[in-house]
User: What shape does this take?
Amino acid sequence: MKDTFGNQLLQFANSVDILEAENFEKIQQYIEEYLSKVLRIKYVRLMLMSETMGGHIMLSKYVLNRNIQDPLLIRKQNGEYNGQMAYAFEKNIRLWITANKDSKTLNNAKEYVDHWSGESKLPKYEKFQKDEEVKTSIIIPIRRSNEVDESKYILGVVNFESQEHLPMTTQAQKELKYISYALGKLFQLHEGRKFQRTNTLSVITEYGHKLAYLEEKYKEYFFEKRPKVFFAFSKRADGAVVDSIKNHIKSQHSENIKLLSWDDKKIVGSITPQLLDSMSNAEYLVCYLSEKEKDHYIDNFNVLIELGYFMGKQEEYEHFKNILIIRESNSLQPVPFDIKDIFSLEVTRSKKKSKFKEKKFEKRLREKIEALLSSREEKL
Assistant: This one.
């Protein structure tokens, strides 16, 4: 029997590594045609084990012959077997069932004869085709093992049905066993491939999200000549000083740096996350700490927090050379100890009327901005 269909099918199942859905469907068609023409079997059901939400074991129809049915619980509520396939599955035995002498078909038989395992008390035959009469039902468990053996790792059962009374022969037993084993193997290959495809698609989707994030993060990283500078200042800061800093950077350094500040954006909702995001993408920080209170200046707490955040995220720059702190000399508080050694610049004002000396301030500002840029060149 080396050249039978079943033997060749099993050899094929043991030789392939993957099985796509369209190929599995073709093989199923070949099996159906062979069973119908050679073994006189009209219906084939591949019933696979699954589990309900409540933990009950059941058999579910896999698409073969395309006559899909509801899942079949192994036992009914009263504890009885839910048909002969459930019986063969739980006992892990092969059955070759015909009706007894008093009945010609299984559909209306009250007693059955099992020619394969000699089971004498079989449960009632469950009719799957309303308008068709069945005279022979052959049920073979399929197992997880790749070999033709008696492994107990059962996947489900294959049910072959004929409208003829088929006598059990050794040749037919072997052929149907080979086909059953092959079906089990091919199903596992197909399910493994389906899992691979699903898992690969999931990984690709996740990778796509990651690439989109990296694309946004690094779109100006490799060839953008202008590093980002975040300008932090208070809403109550001296507007003349703020404008002077902005105008100087935009007019004198626009080719070298890109200026970011909280008031350049139309912010909707909480401002803090958006500020932190902008600072995370910036390589430099220019912060004007001061705001006026009566006749003196004080450091704004929010700007101090932003300064602390920027200092905390530093990994690439030593001694905070990428930070410029601008502060009023006429301040009630001393310079905080933690920022004493960081590049700093005092706002230039006249002694008598505290008038802002813009030109003198911008000259010193230019020097400090150039120092910031040179720190980047040192790092590169």
User: Anything to note?
Assistant: Helices lie at 5-15, 21-37, 84-91, 170-218, 239-252, 271-280, 301-312, 358-379.
